[in-house]
Amino acid sequence: MINEQAPLQLGKYNRLEVIKELDFGMYLDGFDGEEILIPRVYIPEGTQIGQFLDVFIYRDSEDRLIATTLKPFATVGEFAYLKVKDVSKLGVFLDWGLMKDLLVPFGEQLSKMGVGRSYLVYIYVDEETQRIVASAKIDKFLPKDEIQLEYNQQVDILPYEYTDLGVKVLINNCKIGVIYKNEIFKDVKFGEFTIGYIKKVREDGKIDISLVKQGFDRIDNIKQQIYNKLTEENGFLPYTDKTDSEVIYANLQMSKKDFKKGVGGLFREEKILIKSEGIYKIK
User: E strand or H helix at 218, and its extent?
Assistant: First the structure.
């Protein structure tokens, strides 16, 4: 969201007026007498004094406010899955898409963060230093208000970490859940939002997530997936109840249990024939 009026929002997008031009860039009206430099490399061609630019505001290495038309991977107030570029005596630095990397102070790390690895963090402005920083202690930035989540509710999930149980995910930017390892039957890409479904909200508040909708709707989707694959493969698939589960997952992105349910449903609907060598689509 672009901020069109004062006060200036650090770590977010602002719409500011060009008020001065120099060889190395332009100055923008940052309100209250503040002039903010946008280096020439980031200025759109043809920009004139008096025009307004949509810019992201952050601090340079000398803590001066600076503007850019580059878009970081995330802004203040957002969660993001970012990669560690470097380690310093202050903490680790994350690549967030700008020339200046984003600091995670040592005190904001859950455990030692390594170069080349990616982590889920929350981006905020430190009240004492007024610098934009990030924290891997995401629990303290989740909403404290009770948020109602219902069985089979569709949610946006951001996978970010492996555990002994499976994969931890951020749910709707407000809750943490887990997809159990034996229920992951398609590629799950860390740092990319995808669709999930609420499978169970436990008494202790922990949330189980499924990648597919539960109940009959889910089986209908599975049947349709198998039938579509049959159509693509000229009406025959060489899979039976004796086929290895890994082969079924690799080719159909579903568990063997779901495959058998889907095949059974299609057979009862008289859409397929089941033979020793595989299944055939009835034309």
Answer: helix 216-232
The CATH number that domain 216-281 falls under is: 1.10.10.10
For 138, list phi and psi in degrees, rounded to 5.
Answer: -70, -25
What confidence score (pLDDT) does residue 187 get? 77
CATH architecture of 79-140: Beta Barrel (2.40)
Distance between CA 85 and CA 94 in Å, rounded? 5
Confidence (pTM): 0.78
What's the angle, vertex CA 95, arms to CA 156 and CA 113, rounded to 5? 85
Q: What is the rounded distance in angstroms from the CA atom of residue 160 to the CA atom of residue 266?
A: 36
Residue ranges for the chain with pLDDT beneath 50: 1
The correct answer on CATH 3.40.190.10 for the domain covering 154-210 is no
- pLDDT value of position 283: 78
Homologous superfamily of domain range 13-68 = Nucleic acid-binding proteins (2.40.50.140)
68 burial level (CB within 10 Å; 0-12, 13-18, 19+): buried
